[in-house]
Amino acid sequence: MLMMIKKPKFKVFKGENSFYYFTLKAGNGEPILTSQRYVSLQAAEKGIQSVIENARDDRRFVRKITDNLMYYFVIKARNGQVIGLSEAYSSKSGRERGIRAVKRAARVAKIEFHS
């Protein structure tokens, strides 16, 4: 039996509120980054390109902690605008693994459009 290797992907979709969003999913299908909302499909595509470009630079990842001590990160564009938000992690090391996963996945992820 041949085993299919899944590749990372950006999934672009239109929300019920008519805004566009994207999620970066790791090869195992787990979401590792969620976008802000975009008013058009073209703007969401530009957001994806911004993630791809900015994921190369560790300084674009802003490490944060919630009031209840959960760790997360955002990735920012050069202009300082947030372009993606991670899930919450229970440890700093989990957050760092999440950042590494985004860096790896963004380089090779395909883009899928969903309605």
Essential attributes:
single chain; 115 residues; PH-domain like; 2 helices
Molecular structure report:
The chain is an alpha+beta fold. It has one domain: PH-domain like, CATH 2.30.29.80. Helix content is 27%, strand content 31%. The protein has helices at 41-54, 92-108; strands spanning 9-14, 20-25, 31-34, 61-65, 71-76, 82-85, 110-114. The strands form two sheets. The chain has a four-stranded mixed beta sheet with strand order 3-2-1-7, with helices on one face. Strands 4-5-6 form a three-stranded antiparallel beta sheet, with helices on one face. The longest helix has 17 residues, at 92-108. It is globular and about 35 Å long. The mean pLDDT is 94.
* Termini gap: 33 Å
How many alpha or pi helices? Answer: 2
* CATH topology value: PH-domain like
Looking at the structure, what is the overall shape? Answer: globular
Question: What level of helicity do the residues show?
Answer: 25-40%
The computed structural class is alpha+beta
What CATH architecture would you give? Roll
Mean pLDDT value: 94
What spatial order of strands do you see in the largest sheet? 3-2-1-7
How many domain modules?
1
Order of helices and strands: EEEHEEEHE
Q: Main β-sheet: number of strands, strand sense, barrel status?
A: 4 strands, mixed
- Number of E strands: 7
Rg computed from alpha carbons, rounded to a whole number of angstroms: 14 Å
